[in-house]
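User: When convenient, might I ask for sequence and C-alpha cells for a protein?

AI:
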Amino acid sequence: RARLRRARRVRVGAMDRAFGRRAWAPVDFFEMHDVDPPAASIERGCHCLLFGPKGSGKTTLLFQHALAFVKRDPDARVLFVCRRDAVEASPPLLPQSVADLDAARRISMKYLSTDLELCKLMSVMHILPAGELPNLIVIDALSGF
C-alpha cells in the first residue's frame, strides 16, 4: 500500500513537471498548444468509436466534444448516455472556461445500467418529436452495458 501511494506521488509529480501545473487541473484538450487537434472532424451522419485503456480520458474527451458541439450551434442538443456509477467514480474533467451554462444545459444525461436498457432507449428515439431529437448521441463505456 505504501508502495502504491509512493508510485502515485511520483506520477503526479512527473505530470506536474511535464505540464507545469497541478495534475488535477481541468484541461480543454481542444485548446492545448502542445496537443495536435484531430486530423479530421466527424462528419454529420457518421459514427465514431473512441477506445482506449481505462482511465485514459475517454469520458473527458467525449464530454468535451459534446460541450464543444453545443457551443458551436445554439440549437444543438446532445444526449450523453452513460453508467451513473462509472461517471460518479471518475467524472470527466471540464475545461476552465465551462462557464457557458446555456450550452451545458443542452447536454442531457441519461443513466443506464444494462444493454437491454440501451436497446430500449434507442428503439423509442423515433417517437420523439423532430424538435426534441438530439443532434448528437454519445454512448460512453459501451462495453460496460
